[in-house]
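Cross-posted from the bioinformatics board.
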Amino acid sequence: MKRILVACGNGIATSTVVAIKIREKCEDNGVSVSVTQCKLLEVESKVDDYDLLVTTGKYAGGTVKIPVVGAISLLTGYGEEETLEEILNYVK
Amino acid sequence: MSELVFNESLIVKLEGLSTNEEALSLMADHLYDKGYVKESYKDAILNRESEFPTGLFTGAINVAIPHADVNFVKEASIAVGILKNPIKFRAMDDPDKEIEVRLIIMLALKEAHGHIQMLQKVVSLIKNQDSIKEILSTDDLKKSYEIISKYLL
């Protein structure tokens, strides 16, 4: 099961919305994932335990070895489906 | 899981302001005056905005969703700021990009990964440009409240 880390500024608002949408998309497609939320500042210390990083804000920390997907589209609606498909492709 | 407080008295019409700091300060003061947030909430909002901006570029009318950590909040609530003239915010996904915002939805959240339904409702409002236009087109706060309530309550 792939592990997704969802990060935003405070780790409480936009990451919550994104986490839900990711879980729904994966469930609809029969893919098991674990989704964890955190603050952008915590990413560097946590990222090694995950397979995919999804952010709404800009991640400006060190380089990460896993794929990173920007998910602002899940808040504004523009390009939302494409972003969800991209995330799904990384974890299925 | 408790829901967020939102009512007509939490809609603020802002005009004659030039910076987002001014708008955010006014709205944070409003939440503080009503007893929903601690005194430290305002600084937390301003600090968060400067480090991790909350401007959302939606294409037509842009929205900002400022919020801070749960420990600054006494009672979960939402304040909505309607800007008469657009104010520059930086974009959440690209902090070097400035966008003009006319609607501010300030979130005072009490639970770290809660308020799921309310947050989803906020996002559904953000995505609906027609409703946002309607909210901004009227001077009647009661009308604005009705439109916003359709989405948030």
